[in-house]
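We give this protein:

***
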Amino acid sequence: MTHKLFEGKQHASLYQMYRFDPPGEIKEIILQYLDRKKGHPHELAVDLGCGTGQNSRLWAPHFQQVVGIDISESQLKEARAVPGFANLTYRVGTAEELPFPDGSVDLLTAASAAHWFDPERFLKEATRVLKPRGCLALFGYGDNFKFYYDSCGDRLNNIYEDVKEVLTPFTSNRVAVANNKLQDLYEAIPYPDKERIEVIPVKIQTTIKDTVGFFETFSMYQAYLRAEPSAAVALLETATSRFLEEMNVSSTEAKLELGLDYFCLLACKPH
């Protein structure tokens, strides 16, 4: 997890504003798995590549202690600014070198982050810090988004496909790993007790403004912005105008639905 693509203060702020919180369906799947495999007490959860803390906050009501780990101090500054979670702390660090004793962690989780990890070093470290019957839960979504709004969903999908086509040359190999649902990482997990849930369909209520802001958080968009600033800004302006036109609305606060297909990898360390 040595990639500092999300280090900038502005990018961290965008993450806090526009990245979606992990859906409740994912939380329930992971908690039920942990209860089946290990049971209580739920003492320590560690959220790797935590960014601005959306996933870390998800676990705070269910564990005695939650620690978010990220390489970016800018991201963690945004995370720490969210009040109300006394049992949640954040530390700068990587998934490959964790500041926890052997056999001390109940749950290691990562939301849309594990594709940045070094698989071999990460899995070795996960095995070291997990308790016997402790669990690993990695999840995210690919790039196959679907938009829904009255009868113009297909036309909204075309807008997204046009944005994606422009950004494709700026897509890193690591993002391609995420779009492949971490297949290689799953196969490398050394535990015999593991599960792969390919598709967890989720629909999110959003707005035009938040949708275009979501596009802006993409690492490939940020790479495009660095390479061609004017063109990158124009891309999002054009997308916004097209959403307004196709939906026949005048405000970017107009609501629509975004469909995401999540996946989840679950594994339990042996006794």
Residues 9 and 74 are 5 Å apart (CA to CA).
